[in-house]
Amino acid sequence: MKKVVKYLILALLLALFAAVTYIVSAEARSRRHLTTCKRMEIIFRDTLNFVSEDDIRKYLKDGCPVFIGQRIDSIQLYQIEKVLDSRSAILSSQAWTSDSVLFVSITQREPAARMETADHAFYVDDRGYIFPIQGDCGKEFMVVKGHLPLYEPVGYKGIPSTEKGRAWMDGMLAMLEWMKKKGWDERFGTIKVEANGDLVLIPDEGKETIIFGKAEDVAAKFGKINDYYKRIRPVKDEGYYSTVNVKYKGQIICRK
Fold first, then answer.
1. pTM for this one?
2. CATH code, residues 111-255
3. Which fold has domain 39-108?
4. Residues 66-100: pLDDT tens digits?
5. 60: Cβ–Cβ under 8 A, 6 or more apart, which residues?
6. Which positions ≥6 away from 126 have C-beta within 8 Å?
7. How far is CA 29 from the centre of its chain?
8. What pLDDT shows up at residue 241?
9. Model confidence pLDDT, tens digit, residues 167-186
10. Where in the chain is the domain with CATH 3.10.20.310?
11. What is the longest distance spanned by two Cα atoms in the chain?
12. 212 vs 203: CA distance, rounded Å
């Protein structure tokens, strides 16, 4: 009998808890239904400066219904994210509401390099995504210029459109990542692509350029470049050599 009473009391308590929870939830829904959006707060998840708060507000003004003054529960958060994510300099966005505030967080697309052809320049991120240059983020990036096997038009957004272009981009990005990891990007800030596809590394200091060849056998070639700077260059006057060729296996060819 005592056990039955215990179960009844427990059932009543659970029912009471459920009723209270329902009432509180209903009141919260009611308050949310009556709450209007009074302001928007923009949060940047990085230190790049490709887009500003004013840019974000303009994008949303052009692409979304007015949300200031609207009920919080009527704001289409997915539409806000869709509009922002369509901008090439924005990698991802997230929108949510709290009380009477609309929060928007922004992660910008960080370039792995700036690439320049004969007629235009663009950025590419570490995934091979090409996007137009806009604004000034206040940072310097590796410059890859010359006869790039990329034929996308000005303003293009996306990965290279040809299989050859994608393969070349994959090799170049792997090489750039290796250089950054090993610190070689601090010595070479520019890579020139010759008409025959050879890569030529141009040092930030010094006159000699490095004929690298294709973006392959990267570790071995940089091993030879390291040998040049440690063993060959120190015994010669500065500027003695104009080119250093490491494209051939087992050879370092220096020319005046």
1. 0.78
2. 3.40.50.11690
3. Ubiquitin-like (UB roll) (3.10.20)
4. 778 888 888 889 999 999 999 989 999 999 998 89
5. 40, 67, 80, 83, 84, 104
6. 110, 112, 173, 177
7. 38
8. 87
9. 999 999 999 999 999 999 99
10. 39-108
11. 105
12. 13
